[in-house]
Amino acid sequence: MNQSNKEYIRLLIESGVHTLLKETPNNHHKLNEKLEDTNLDDNSKTLHEISNIKELIFKISCHETPLKKTANRIVVFDGDINSKLMIIGEAPGKEEDEKGKPFVGRAGQLLVKMLGAINLKRENIYITNVIPWRPPNNRTPTETEILEFLPYLQKQIDIIKPSYIFLLGTTAAKAILATPLSLGKLRGQWHKYNSLNLNFTADVLVSYHPAFLLRSPNYKKEAWADLQMLQEKLNEN
Question: Would you say 117 and 95 are in contact if contact means Cβ atoms under 8 Å apart?
Fold first, then answer.
């Protein structure tokens, strides 16, 4: 294990993720409610007490982080809060930062085509990212940043309570599966995401981020295989 992976695992342990396995990705979180009118003048609620997405967005917006200083708009989610499928990407890019929505740039356009190929519409899916603020120059989020926003991401899953989670890219896989394993070793099989309270489980599939596919189109065949796996699982239920 290299020093980067050792540091990542140390940070996970310090953040409260205690059940790390060497060769198997780990699991996490829980809770559910719908969007409702909320008093957003009060930030006294703890993350545990928050029960809907509006409150969570307000909580995230109050969180002080260096990323907030270089970004234009917070980007939390798009789509259907009642969806049983959640897609998680990496972080907002330039277009997302301008519009306040995830996956609206070229990568988002490709994602829409990918979903359409298996008869899914983005408006019927809950779409989010690991990081709600655009990193400077669209750089990859650091491990510290992933851990900084991990509780908010877990809370989104708690509230939405999806049956299936589709992880796009290494950053999303690290955050949700808490593993140093490469994307190649995580693809092609279903994983489990369990709540820390052991009362919520989601099936998790890992694939390539659309932005990566735009840079490396030779991996589209493998991405198509992942989409077919997702479609088969959805059709089962």
Answer: no
**CA distance readout (Å), 206 to 88, 89, 111, 112, 119:** 10, 10, 14, 17, 19
pTM greater than 0.90:
no
Let me know: does 126 contact 160? Beta carbons within 8 Å: yes
- For residue 41, the model assigns a pLDDT of 54
Cα–Cα distance between 227 and 204 in angstroms, integer? 12
Domains within the chain, CATH numbers bracketed: 26-32+49-236 (3.40.470.10)
The residue ranking higher by pLDDT, 199 or 171, is 171
Report the C-alpha gap between 129 and 153 in whole angstroms. 8
pLDDT reading at 55 higher than 80:
yes
Alpha helices, H only, 28-182: 53-62, 66-70, 94-99, 106-117, 143-160, 170-177
